[in-house]
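Exercise 7.
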Amino acid sequence: MLARPSRSDSMEATAVMERERLTAELAFTETATEPSFVVKIRRRLPDFARSVNLKYVRLGLRSGGLPSPSSWVPLALAPPLLAAAAYSFARLGVIGVGAAGVERLHSLDMLTCVAWLATAALLLAVYCLKRPRPVYLVEFACYKPGDEHAISKDGFLEMTESTGFFNAEALEFQTKITRRSGLGDRTYLPPGIQARPPRLSMAEARAEAAAVMFGCLDALFAATGVDPRRDVAVLVVNCSLFNPTPSLASMVVHHYRMREDVKSFNLGGMGCSAGLVAVDLARDMLQANPGCRAVVVSTENITLNWYFGNDRSMLLSNCIFRMGGAAALLSNRRADAGRAKYRLLHTVRTHKGAADECFGCVYQREDGGGRVGVSLARELMAVAGDALKTNITTLGPLVLPLSEQLRFLASLVLRRVLRARRGGGRPYIPDFRRAFEHFCVHAGGRAVLEEVQRSLGLGDGDMEPSKCTLHRFGNTSSSSLWYELAYAEAKGRVHRGHRVWQIGFGSGFKCNSAVWRALRDVPPVRANDAGNGCNPWVDSVETYPPKAYV
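Solution. The predicted structure, written as tokens, is:
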């Protein structure tokens, strides 16, 4: 019989699990001889209610929660100046014209009136010039591969075994991960990976990139009526692991014969959060260039980045990453405001790369046999939790209702006054469900989505777009956020005034957020509507959500 642990041992074990952010799950099983149980230990995200860093709250207030003096001072001074001008103008009717002194007083009031009006006009002009230009999301399109690229979970495991590159332990591990991944039986892989033997070449990788990028761009331009040869002034393409020469951005420019002065950018190595980095860059370019349109393309390339080794830390990407991509049309033109779907309200970027454990938790390297792959460290969940905590703490002052912010600030003041420590004075944690109607959390994996849902206190309906996207399309890297938003649109759930929160995680380690406000009702898609080439859920919206995500 096993000895019962002492009270001190139990307390020490509990402290260790709390410090290491571990959680235990107890599962009972029945065997032929006697019942048994299995204890599963896994890492979890931090409890945000117990660790709020005030410097990130102040960062959020400085970045947008509190307007800068250059934005509100001119507008605040304009009414008093206009009132002074009106008073001076009224005095002109009271003062008659006769004596020389009266004429001088009359002229002085006239000059004063003109000076007040000129100063007020100048301040209003400064306000208009300093005010950020609105950035609109006119339309976006997600790539849906053809049925010839579809693969089921059993098909994936059969394909993996038939390559002959993996030993028995690696095959068993991939089978275990695949069964629990949350992916369905209609995800997609490029033909170079599914071929036997695999066709791993630059030509195949370029063919995959061309199919994905041009597929979603063709649908985007057809839906918006935009001529890429003359109407696109800014182009941003992000792809983390495939960066050929010429770049993917140059491939797009060449394919569509874009204008010579197009400002093109190619972002590489930035992981699954790069899509929001691209949106943030496009926004900055639109702020600096009035009357422009920008196209953002987010994709990932699998052909040359499939791992054919036996290192477990590198095999996870094979099991969850799948083929996909998306393109979005952004604009600051007034002519596009009437037809745009969303307006970009905020972008918040968090980079934890200064810390060694954050920098190396997602790392491309060779294994012991010299095969290149992307290694995922055991600390990934804890690193992602810290980055998410920082990001949402910065975002809070920008998006939360005034009542929530006042309660939060009141609790902070109370903590300062009482000098509360760990034992008391727990801060009030705002409810982000009061700030957003739609949540698009990067579909990085089933465990990540479950932990984010638990940590943020979200409901099953809030996580439905993310879980359904993972089940239907797998982890499509940075483009997964757009598949999730497309799901909400396909269901007819997006209405005017609704706010959308997109959250992306990526190597580095980064956590980025984008907040959108819907400008109009988005009608649901009709099943098998051949005319809707932008939404990838046309053929499957009626079958989702599934009864079980396994």
